[in-house]
Amino acid sequence: MPSYELPDFYLPHPPRLNPHLETARAHTRAWAADMGMLDDPDIWDAPRLEAMDYGLMCAYTHPDCPAAELDLITDWYVWVFYFDDHFLETFKRSRDLKGAQAYLDRLDAFMADDPPEPANPVERGLADLWPRTVPAMSPSWRRRFVRVTRDLTQESMWELFHIERDAVSNPIEYVEERRKVGGAPWSAALVEHAAGAELPARLAASRPVRVLTESFADAVHLRNDLFSYEREVRQEGELSNCVLVCERFFGCDTRQAVQITNDLLTSRLHQFEHTALTELPQLFTDEGVSPEEQGRVLRYVGGLQDWQAGGHAWHTASSRYTRAVRPAGPLGMNVSRAHLTGPGGLRNHSRTPFTEVSVRLPQPYMPFRVRDNPHLEAARAVDVAWCAEMGFFDALPGIPETAVWTESELVGFDLALCASGIDPDASADGLVLATNWLAWGTYGDDYYPRVFGAARDLTGAKLANRRLRRFMPVDLSPAPAPANPVERGLADLWPRTAGPMPEESRRAFRIAVEEMLDSWIWELAGHAENRVPDPIDYLEMRRRTFGSDMTMSLARLAPGRHIPAGLYRTREFLGMADAAQDYACLVNDLFSYQKEIQFEGELHNAVLVVQTFFDCDPQQGVAIVDALLTSRMKQFEHITAVDLPVLLERIEAGDAVRESVAGYVTELQDWMAAIVRWHQRTRRYPGGAPARSTPVRWTQGPTGLGTATARLAPPGPAAGVRVPAGPGGIR
After folding, report:
1. C-alpha to C-alpha distance for 137 and 18, rounded to whole angstroms
2. Contacts within 8 Å (CB) and 24+ apart, 686-689
């Protein structure tokens, strides 16, 4: 009898069973024995493999593929589950970090045409599977499959690091890292293989396809966490499970944590459905996708739905997991009113805009000092003149009000103060350039809702973005004549910024600007649908809407930096940058909440997203967002103090690399500290400086350095944060 009851799962798609099930079972038993996977009874033996029944899993998750393909797919899953258990037994229990890393690094050699001699069942299995799999697929798919397979294996170290230091992730970090180590993106790549649904290379990285893959992956992982909690957490001492993450972060009991996890799972399934029904058709139109390409993408979507439904059916049958108490409904489906009206469902479409709000804002946790640039006053004056020259104060044709901005409003915004703290060591010209970019991005963020939002003119906004791309020529060729202030500003900024860059850096910077522009379309589409975003989709898009990717790309591309490009793709660098971005974005959402919700009818704000997900009041939403940003800052501090030095030691970094890394870390610290200080002083948001909302002792000096004692105390940043009681324990 389980110690807790599994929740009421949303099951919108019926599971189906492949008729070649018995063939796959027989084949994979023999294959596992041949690979040596049954030789160590402490890991696996024949009865244990039989009870886990991976043949049944693959017959459920790939119901339409032929027998030979089902055999191949089942072998892959036997390999990946054996790898997980072998890694647990060999390295997690012994805490052998050095041996684990060497073991994982060797696996990369078996995803190549000339692998070494295998030394254990995991290597033997991969050496056998690789040549049986990749010949049927394009080089583009192979590169993606190598990446997701490497993520799956290498990120096992993330789990091992957490066990070693007895640490539980914050919710944002957990979802991102679980997506890698959990293997569902790897499963999605195998869906392409099994369903004859290889994604067209030009569409594989598009937002709709990316969101379909990631929402599928998150739902698979959250479901697995619910079924595997007792085995992983209570028997194996595992710390990477969303139920445990919710227990620690929210300071709640297991029953509440199960419900929060299940609500997030339901929301991700709704995100998958919403993307397939609303964003894919638009992608097909915008990109001129051929009928044959559309067919492959739609087979991929169907394959992911089959996997989701079949994966649930297998979890209820496998000996590996907690047994479900309540059965699924007819045909293995389960769709209740609560599933349709709760998180991700109709609740997200029921927001009444321009609602009066009043909240008490906490002081953001900020451990770093702000330094100001000596050219601040000059930059203030030059930026006002530049904005006037670009036409930011001019009346726009067809706009009911006279202008998007007035000069007095810009002076009150004081964007030069933000730029001064972000880059305190910049030259006078460099500070002016940084301030102009902040002004342009902020103006564009206000311009798009004013010009395209009220009219629900998504087509006009997309055409505007298409034109803006012409003002960022990688070869620095002449741009067309600008037709509005946004174009005029970009036409001026691009050659000043990109001109001194090498071509590769220009290309990277252009991509970062394009991602911000495209995120503005995403916000406009949300308003057209009156839809408050899913929490995970919101956080990932917020980095783009805030322009943080663009800002950080400028830091990465700074001249004189000696950081190998590969370091930026490591777990440590990605985690550090993402934590910094999320911190800054969430700070902005706290300070802008009243302005956006009450006066602008905004739907894209973290406080509102949290309110909608938990069905809680605004003050509780503020408390949870504050806990999230605090946890992200603490994660940033841990990575820079502990993980980065270990990484630099492991790669034997030289003095130049270490100095450049230290400089990059300092720039991120400056960026976050400056953003907090600017929000406290700017007149862009109503209400002035925040008041204390909790009885904590707070000290803050003129530098902006502040520490709340409550945030330094265990057990966690969100201990005591309560969501409303009610049916199911959290609503």
Report:
1. 23
2. 686/594, 686/595, 686/599, 687/361, 687/594
pLDDT number for residue 432: 96
User: How much helix, strand and coil, in percent to the nearest 5, is found in the chain?
Assistant: 65, 0, 35
678 near 417, Cβ under 8 Å? yes
Token pair for 714: 């265990």
Specify whether the CB–CB gap between 123 and 107 falls below 8 A. yes
Query: Which of 200, 112, 197 has its CA nearest to residue 149?
Result: 112
Q: What's the pLDDT tens digit per position in 128-146?
A: 999 999 999 999 999 999 9
Question: By the 8 A CB rule, do 404 and 396 touch?
Answer: yes
d(CA 305, CA 146) in angstroms, rounded, equals 23
Pairing of strands 706-708, 698-700: antiparallel
State the Cα–Cα distance between residues 514 and 510, nearest whole angstrom: 6
Report d(CA 137, CA 117) in Å as an integer.
Answer: 25
Task: For residue 4, name the pLDDT band (cuts at 50, 70, 90).
Answer: low
Residue 548: the pLDDT is 83
pLDDT for 649 beyond 90 = yes
Question: What six digits make up the tokens of 329?
Answer: 């409904």
* Amino acid, single-letter form, for residue 158: W
Greater pLDDT, 26 or 561: 26
Report the distance separating Cα 382 and Cα 409, nearest Å.
Answer: 15
Give helix 207-229 / helix 184-194 axis angle, nearest 10°. Answer: 120
Q: Which residues contact 610 (CB under 8 A, 6 or more apart)?
A: 535, 616, 620, 621, 624, 625
Helix 156-164 × helix 139-154 angle, to 10°: 10
447-476: pLDDT as tens digits: 999 999 988 899 999 999 999 999 999 999
pLDDT digits (tens, 9 = 90+) for 330-359: 788 999 999 999 999 999 999 999 999 999
| CB of 94 closer than 8 Å to CB of 103 | no
Task: Summarize pLDDT for 367-383 with one digit per residue, the tens.
Answer: 999 999 999 999 999 99
Q: Which amino acid is present at 191?
A: V
Round to whole Å and give the CA distance between 44 and 227. 20
- Return the DSSP state at 392: T
Compute the distance between CA of residue 653 and CA of residue 659 in angstroms, rounded to an integer. Answer: 10
CA distances from 444 to 402, 403, 461, 548, 553 (A): 16, 13, 11, 15, 19
Distances (CA, A) of 623 to 294, 626, 694, 721: 44, 5, 9, 7
Question: What b/e readout covers 602-619, taking b as 16+ CB neighbours within 10 angstroms?
Answer: bbbbbbbbbbbbbbbebe
Distance, in Å, from the CA atom of 125 to the CA atom of 122, rounded to the nearest integer, reads 5
pLDDT band at 556 (very low <50, low <70, confident <90, very high): low
CB 549, CB 516: distance < 8 Å: yes
pLDDT digits (tens, 9 = 90+) for 386-416: 999 999 999 987 766 679 999 999 999 999 9
What is the Cα–Cα distance from 173 to 574, expressed in whole angstroms? 11
In the structure encoding, which two tokens stand for residue 362, read together? 């906490």
Helix (H) or strand (E) holding 76: helix 67-87
For residue 44, the 8-state DSSP code is: -
d(CA 199, CA 174): 27
CA distance 77 to 202: 28
Q: Helices marked H in 88-206 — which ranges? A: 97-107, 121-133, 139-154, 156-164, 171-181, 184-194
B/e letters for 304-342, b = 16+ CB within 10 Å, e = fewer, are bbbbbbbbbbbbbebebbbebeeebeeebebeeebbeeb
SS3 sequence, 583-602?
Answer: HHHHHHHHHHHHHHHHHCCC
pLDDT per position as a tens digit, 486-535: 999 999 999 999 999 989 889 989 999 999 999 999 999 999 999 999 99
